[in-house]
Structure formats: C-alpha cells, structure tokens
User: What shape does this take?
Amino acid sequence: MTARLKGKVALIIGAARGIGKGIAQRFAEERAQLVLADNEDEAGRATATELGAGFILTDISRMTDAEAAVRLALELHGRLDIVVQNAGIYPWQLIENTSPEDWDRVMGVNLRGCFNAARAALAPMKAQGSGRMLFTSSITGPHVTSPGHGHYGATKAGINGFIRSAALEFAGYGITVNGVEPGNILTEAIQMHRGPTFIKNMEDAIPLGRLGSPRDVANAFLFLASDDASYITGTTIVVDGGQLLPEGADFHLLPP
Ligand SMILES: NC(=O)c1ccc[n+]([C@@H]2O[C@H](COP(=O)([O-])OP(=O)(O)OC[C@H]3O[C@@H](n4cnc5c(N)ncnc54)[C@H](O)[C@@H]3O)[C@@H](O)[C@H]2O)c1
Assistant: This one.
C-alpha cells in the first residue's frame, strides 16, 4: 500500500460487484475516500460497508440519479476528484432478435450512463480546476466482436469516441478523460452468462493463458486516476492478456 490516492474523493458507478468492486477495493487500498453507486441496493450497500464507503442507489441511465450521486460525494467529502463510470450490461442477443427497446436499454446504461456521469461531475471538477473522468470501455466494439453483441459493441465503441470529445472539451478546465478496455475478465457475471466451455476456449485464445481478474483492470484505473497519469488524456488502456495480438489461431506454436 502506497496511498497513491490519499486525499482524493472518488465516485465509482457500477461498484457492487465484478470489475467495479475490484476498482473500489484497489482505490480503497490506496486510501481514496469512496462513494459507490449501483442499481443493486443490497449488494451495493454490502460492498460499501466492507470498504467504509458511502453508497447511493443509482440507475446511471437517468441523469437525475447521476446528479444525486455527485451531490452525495460533495455532501460527504466536500469535493470530487475522480469519477469512474463502470456500470454496463451485456445481454447476449442477435441483432435480428433485438427490439428497439432492448437497443435503447443497452445504450441507456452503457453509453448515456457515461454522458450522464461526465455531465454531472463536470461542474464541481470545473470549479476545482481539476478532475479525472474514467470509463470502462471494452475490446469488444472498438477492436473485435462476436455474434450477439451488436448493441453492446456499439456502446463501447461509442464510449471511446465520447472519451476523445470530452477530453478535448474539458482539457482547459484541468480535467482529464480516459478509459480502460478490458478483454475477458473473470467476474461472477461472466461465469453466469458464459459457462465453462466459453471460459476454456477463451483461455486458449489469450496469449497470457488466463482470463483477467478485476484487479488487473483496477490497476489500470488506478494508474489513470493517480498523479502519474496527469499528462494523459483522451485515450484508453487495453487490459486483455494479449488477446488482440494474434493474426490467427496458430500462435501457440513454439519457435523451431
Ligand atoms: N467482465 C468482462 O469480461 C468485461 C470485459 C470488457 C468490459 N467489461 C465492462 O466492465 C464493466 C463491468 O462488467 P462486469 O463484468 O464487472 O459486470 P457486473 O455485472 O459484474 O458488474 C456491473 C455492475 O454495474 C451495475 N449496474 C448495472 N446496471 C446499472 C445501472 N443502470 N446503474 C448503475 N449500476 C448498474 C451492476 O449492478 C453491477 O454491480 C461493464 O461496463 C462491462 O461492459 C467487462
């Protein structure tokens, strides 16, 4: 523990479990003061209690909820240094079976949620003359995809575009805007949605030979939230165990 976030107030949205909980745990280890937001009340409160954090029930697809989460951070701690919008949903759905309502729901949480978080955090960060806005993107959408991710991939590619626009608009206020693109990360949600065969196939497709952990992703967020990243804005870090690298399936071949 090196207290890299000591004195910093961080709001983490989508923090009840999975990657978001991993980010909250990592930030807590580095002494950030935390406010967690999630649309699952019981799990969200349990994580917040475990980490000594504030908690607010939040549906990030709603602007009023995003504003209330920012307000809570300001009420509890008087400032807001870091906002992480990690909440995301990934229902598996072929495009031909996706209704406009399904499409809007995924857009609402994953993409509008990022706009809502940024828009709500902007005023206090602008007044402070500093801030870190961080978003969970994905390799799915910006770089690769698989069937069933039409809406999801569109949101994650959209997040990367939003990161660049927001970084440019907010640079003059001392606010940096960045994201992390996880590959396949072993969370409870992935285990539930995908199953053991998917996970085994994925391990074979990842050069480092394993799925990532929430902590692997959290370490990249920590770097982007820390003072070490003060000159970095408008970009994303890929955390995928090398999954994007192979040109084909033969990468396991050893040199002659
Ligand atoms: N797990 C992976 O392999 C992987 C890979 C790439 C990107 N991601 C992204 O990482 C993020 C977290 O994924 P995860 O695997 O940890 O999933 P998860 O389902 O375990 O966690 C998502 C969290 O967001 C919360 N949430 C969902 N909808 C919300 C809403 N409307 N408002 C507020 N909170 C909401 C959930 O309750 C949960 O706590 C997502 O944005 C996902 O797209 C995950």
Summary: The pocket of nicotinamide-adenine-dinucleotide is lined by residues 13-14, 16-20, 38-40, 58-61, 86-90, 109, 136, 138, 182, 184-185, 187-190 (CB under 6 Å).
